[in-house]
Amino acid sequence: MKKIFFITSLFIFSISFSQSASVRIGYIDMEYILEKAPDYAEAKIQLEQKASKWKQDIELKKNEIKKLKETLATERVLLTKELIEEREEEISFQEKELFDYQEKRFGSRGDLIIQKSILVKPIQDQVFTAIQDIAEQKRYDFILDKSSDLTILFADKRHDISDQVVRAIMRSEKREQLSKKEQKAQEAKEAKEDLQDKNPVLAERQKILDEKKAAREKLMEERKAAREKIIEDRKKAALEKRKKLEAEKNGTVIEKETSEGEK
């Protein structure tokens, strides 16, 4: 209901507001951004390692319960009613323990969700800061999250600012490691990227130029490698020829000395 109310309110507000001014609405894909964030990969690995250990514990417990059930099935005919009930109670107790452990680790309020929240929060804070900066600089009225529960029936790619957010996070981390001179060069590069974001035609033109440049550089590298191979092959051929000549010369000298000795 909250989601429907929000969408309806946003739609009504957009229509009414558009009478006097244009409304800028952008969107992000939080999952995409997190996958691109450098710190997220490490946090994700840590979480997966913990989850893997918990799954192993669960499998061990399941195997123990399975063995208890198999043993009871085998020995049931030899046991008294009291002993059977005692064994069944033990199995029920173990199963409840297993269920509780699964809920504790993987439930809707379990350790996995809590740990994920703790590990991801600093990265999400970076993302939200970047979103706020972009929204203020480029005057967005709304920025939605495509990967959330909010249903977006259609979204034009040109309104997707996910890559801009990723770049903003990367830039922040790079600046801390650059000298003043490098920072100026980085700022010029960033200004160029921001200009391309505003002008899709310019961005497409730049993309074509970059692709052509990459193709030229690849061709030059291939030609350079081919030249180096030819030179190397010639060197090898010359070396082999020299060795052959020396071998022939040495063989001739030995032959002369042998024939003189016989005389």
UniProtKB/TrEMBL annotation:
UniProt keyword list: Coiled coil, Signal
Signal peptide positions (record): 1-21
UniProt biased composition (Basic and acidic residues): 176-197
Coiled coil recorded as keyword: yes
UniProt cross-references to InterPro entries, sorted A to Z: Chaperone_Skp, Skp_dom_sf
Coiled coil: 44-104
Keyword Signal assigned: yes
UniProt-annotated stretches for the region Disordered: 176-199, 243-263
Entries under SMART domains matching the protein: OmpH (SM00935)
Top-level taxon: Bacteria
Family classification: Belongs to the Skp family.
Protein name as annotated: OmpH family outer membrane protein
